[in-house]
Write a structure and sequence with these properties.
This protein starts with a helix and ends with a helix. It is 36% helix and 5% strand. Helix 1 packs parallel to helix 2 and helix 5 runs antiparallel to helix 6. It has a three-stranded antiparallel β-sheet.
Length: 212
Amino acid sequence: MKEHSLRLLAMARGVPDLRSLDTGRSGGLSVAIWEGLLTPGPLDLTPFRPPSTDRWRRGSGLPLGVLGPVQIYATNADPAFEGKGHSPFCRHTRDRGLAQSDDLLIVSDLLARDDWDCCSKCGGYSARRLTDAQLSYYRAAHQLHDIAGQLDDERPYRAPVEPEALLKQLEELADWEPGGHENVNWDGRWRWREVVSGLRRRAERKRLHTAP
């Protein structure tokens, strides 16, 4: 049974549109397979949102890069249609799984919208599981955003900063490339390096300020 499920999961991962695996929410693919295809909750896209005056929710303005085309699925992403958008795993959707009637967007669509009425419990959607390169970039972006937060002088309750450790992390993050391939002109590469350079300057100032 386990081997059969793994074969189904491997085949399903190659499907361009997961809605074509329509179960009608009444059976078909098991919950375990859907969980292998979709994230259990929404992605945290804070690092990719623009900087703002809201010091609690401000983004870092990082480029979406390889995350831009990641598919997201929701029960309702149309503000003209009554009802909130839910994840296929939300308890409000009764049965788990995708249906042909669900909506398909990509992450870049999501960041461009502010008219989507999303369920506060599930975040409104599930994303297709990230590839290795996408997951690597997602983690690197969050690490860079976290460093920006540590260097934010206006952030309340900020823990003591260790400039040397941050500079070492920034050196490693500066040359992130999709799949580890160097000199790839990926979308947003220059913006990424611009943000890293700005954080390096701030960390350097911190180091000079805290030097004995």
